[in-house]
């Protein structure tokens, strides 16, 4: 290959820029040019390309978001859109593509691969819901962002009449809620994988009071049952008219200067993706397993539903004591 | 005086601990003992006192919250509660009190002063709604916390189909919304002092699109009209089904390690409060005006409603261009 | 005026970008175009200009440094260089210039003004050594950076056999050392304005031990006597072979995402500078005094040597108790 | 076992408090009491013990340093000191100890184990120089601290006449320098494992200029050859009188609020250490390998010299392009 492409797709994840930097500079070190495909698969259809030099990725690793922007493209899922995308990259001279994103993005990469166009995936998704890798790019920064919020909430006056609810990202995965909740010492952590009830939460709250803890902090993933807002309403509707304060972090969790761990992970994965692509090991996602990178076939990644780490569930209970 | 008291009251504000440190060490430098009164006026009634040494305030300035805790006391507003509080501090040998807090706290300090017990107030309130001082303790840290949230939200993918709403503190005052919104370059800032309408906000959004700005960020003070939640619902109910993401910062804004400016301000004010108390200049709040402290009578502070800074309102519009 | 110029000069200060943003958007709101002059007066001589639109300053306020870069120009101080600079800006259609920087930068602005070309200055310098303004742009962020270092050093194991020396910026001014040292609770703060001796510092160290403080942290401005390195060597040369750890912050203090206070200050000053320029009030620096901006003639600013704040010197001693 | 002990020893590492919290609460969940041994092995000899309840470790996880303090004890390495330590813990009813620290600390733990007293080690050391674990507690936070310094230095004015040298920790190990240098995009990273020469560094600098990079940042581990100070002097002694600015981070790197990754790692390791101790799997260090904990015999850990990660060395060169 003489020229490869790189794109970011799906939700932003801090560290994507470090992955782009690693792709460009690894390719360069191997005598290969890199073309940036803007706005994910939408930009593939629109032929929105820009050649990337070592200088054009200088200094980008510290910024959140992605210089290539992301988008979700319904058109790419149509046969016409897909064909147009394929023709565009081929006619531009792109011979293989590194796709950085979550499961939707890898689905697109698999479709290209199956159509005979070589691709390698890099896991970028703050939810940490992808199989085949210990961590995805963006998870570490997002966890730190949530942790800072927990730490700050803990600063405010202790009161036995008050609870704090913090809603965090995670439609299907409780990883962020668990990791940040354990690190921050939350009393209760509610994840999508294990629905619970308002009654159980209120019972836990009473037990916490009895144990003498000076605060009651509940981390609620956005996909959990019950929802943070429902818990809040239930608490104020109790006889005691309990005062529950709500923080909804929202997209704050997608931003911020990427942590060292995220930039380092992104650099390892992005660089290994180029190596795989140039060595013909395509149709795979590059994951991290321990300190080493590993190549995992798309089918294996996409067929799998990542279960919550048993150890984290156990620790969540112990640390809440 | 041989012994003075210090208390924090009302909502927590980052920097209160630096003020406590300054009170204790300034008193010490003048040969005077300091007694900490825990949980504000409630602790005065409960005789919840602890002598504070230079060592017991060592290292506290960097923590959010207040080592003396705060509480709101309805009992203190009754004649019986007030008398009991007064007797308790007198019988403990406390001859004057430094009160750190917002307008409710200063009201209590004025009541004590009017009953013949010397007090000096120190403005601590993240809302910056007190007259007689350029800044209150906690405002700078809270503004930085909001600004970090705005910066992070700006990192996420630009999209012409998306708006971001960030709800910040400020029941009656738009200071935090304005200061953070201007610093962060928000497109629209909605403050309690100037009610607006959903229609105006939507019109502003369309104008912003026309000007080519890649994002639309609205900062909404919690006491503003319309409310952040109402704006969100209105946006998704428009024909275009506009996607508005909401962040509610909540009590995160009250916490965090105090900024240098907050610790320095708290040190200046806390130290000057002790000087004023020992020199018999009581019944006043110590404010900052420029780089100098100033003593402002309670009546002057409490009779005044601080208007929004004209200059900030003007800049909010210009920077949103 | 139809077109104005803006430049940054001298040492970088966080917040300069927010000032540039404010200049461009205030001018725009008044129907005036802004031209960026790159690399300070050097760029004036090289005719290194670029028109700035509202979009080209979008999102810059959160970055440290300055998008226009800075440089120090010896050539501008020669009659030939000066004339060339003047001709270049005039022939480009620039009718007035906003100069953002320290005293060297304001000197250049005064020279232009004296040659009949209208300029207005904005104080940008982390040292806070300029007269005529309570604060310069960049001071607040730099103070926070130093404070974080002090906080982190305090975390490490207390030991009665160890001292920590932190060298901070300040060739002639002790402001940063004092402000951060007081906020961080340093035991000793050494400023350029008040030379001291190794013996005095060692005596202070012994006194601190006697008072039972668990650490001994010394903040040393780079222009102070004795120097941090000398103190360190003297400590390890004492009979006890005292272990002194040194941190030299260096240029770390010039960088970082500007704090809310710095961005807000830069916005106020940058905007007021354009107003002054367009209203013909030139030959002045815009300072902040309290919450209001003020116009101060260059001669007044440049003839003055800002003394250390008496109050800070006093507090430095008290808080070190 | 009914009662176990926990101690921290050697250099502070952020996250040690989270490990202590996990030890206490895991023991509690298994019906076992925990005793804190203060100041490492020195406190074992001095019988400086305090029972730790769930409440006494509440809120500590977010602070840097260690609530138990650390110390280095020469006395423990004498037969008399060792015997006294052993008798003290036995007579206090402590039946096993969790030792948190680096290789020196694990050496002590092995000595106790060999004397028939059960111990389990937890790797805490910012240098990441221990075998048997992917990461030690404190590494992630220290890397982030260094990265922030690099990011800030990058903000300052680009200049082709200036280099920035940042000295970081690492007497024998280049991990921190490599990890932070890659994440931060440093041009050259100098580690203890691969001595280089001033000439090579100057040659690299000239090549960087030719490639058009706007800055030249060199990360130097404190144990590297040449030393940061030597490089600086050599640079200013070149004919061009090159201006090299030096930052020495020092003990700043040991402090700071632990990152989410450090707190989570410390929680996993501390909890698993208690499990191992109570299940009789002693004489081992608990390491992290991927997302799982692993028990590694002391001999295996202590006989090994951890080599620098090949992949990081390679990436350091590529990213510097």
Strand order of the largest sheet of chain A: 3-2-1-4-5-10-11
Rg over C-alpha atoms of chain A, rounded to the nearest angstrom: 22 Å
What order do the SSEs of chain A take from the amino end to the carboxyl end, as H and E?
Answer: EHEHEHEHEHEHEHEHEHEEHH
Uncertain segments of chain A are none
Largest interface, by Cβ-Cβ below 8 angstroms: which chains and how many residues each? A-D, 52 and 52 residues
Task: Report how far apart the termini of chain A are.
Answer: 57 Å
What's the multimeric state?
homotetramer
**What would the CATH topology of the largest domain in chain A be?**
Rossmann fold
Can you walk through the features of this model?
Chain A is α/β, with parallel strands linked by helices. Chain A has 2 domains: 3-138 and 258-303, 3-Layer(aba) Sandwich (Rossmann fold), CATH 3.40.50.450; 140-254, 3-Layer(aba) Sandwich (Rossmann fold), CATH 3.40.50.460. Helix content of chain A is 41%, strand content 18%. The first copy, chain A, is built from 11 helices and 11 strands. Chain A has helices at residues 16-29, 40-45, 79-91, 103-114, 139-155, 175-184, 198-211, 228-237, 260-278, 298-303, 310-319; strands at residues 3-8, 33-37, 49-52, 97-101, 119-123, 162-168, 188-190, 217-221, 243-248, 284-289, 292-297. Chain A has a 7-stranded mixed beta sheet with strand order 3-2-1-4-5-10-11, with helices on both faces. The mean pLDDT of chain A is 94. Chains in contact: A-B, A-D, B-C, C-D. At the A-D interface, α1, α5, α6, α9 and α11 of A face α1, α5, α6, α9 and α11 of D.
């Amino acid at each position: 290959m003489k020229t490869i492409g790189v794109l970011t797709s799906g939700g932003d994840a801090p560290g994507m820029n470090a992955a782009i930097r690693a792709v460009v500079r690894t390719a360069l070190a191997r005598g290969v040019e890199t073309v940036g495909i803007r706005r994910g698969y939408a930009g593939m259809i629109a032929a929105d390309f820009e050649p990337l030099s070592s200088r054009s990725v200088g200094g980008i690793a510290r910024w959140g978001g992605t210089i290539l922007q992301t988008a979700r493209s319904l058109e790419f899922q149509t046969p016409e859109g897909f064909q147009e995308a394929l023709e565009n990259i081929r006619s531009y001279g792109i011979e293989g593509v590194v796709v950085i994103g979550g499961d939707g993005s890898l689905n697109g990469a698999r479709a290209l691969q199956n159509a005979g166009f070589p691709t390698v995936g890099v896991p970028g998704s703050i939810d940490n819901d992808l199989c085949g890798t210990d961590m995805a790019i963006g998870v570490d920064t997002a966890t730190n962002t949530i942790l800072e919020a927990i730490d700050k909430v803990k600063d405010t006056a202790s009161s036995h009449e008050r609870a704090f609810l913090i809603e965090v990202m995670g439609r299907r995965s409780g990883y962020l809620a668990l990791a940040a909740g354990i690190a921050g010492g939350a009393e209760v952590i509610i994840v999508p994988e294990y629905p619970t009830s308002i009654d159980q939460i209120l019972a836990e709250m009473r037990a916490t009071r009895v144990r003498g803890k000076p605060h009651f902090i509940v981390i609620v993933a956005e996909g959990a049952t019950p929802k943070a807002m429902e818990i809040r309403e239930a608490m104020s509707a109790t006889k005691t008219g309990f005062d529950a304060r709500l923080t909804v972090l929202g997209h704050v969790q997608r931003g911020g200067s990427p942590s060292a761990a995220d930039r380092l992970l992104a650099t390892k994965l992005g660089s290994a993706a180029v190596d795989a692509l140039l060595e013909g090991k395509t149709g795979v996602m590059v994951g991290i397993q321990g300190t080493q990178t590993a190549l995992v076939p798309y089918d294996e990644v996409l067929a799998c539903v990542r279960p919550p780490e048993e150890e984290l569930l156990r620790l969540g209970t112990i640390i809440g004591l």
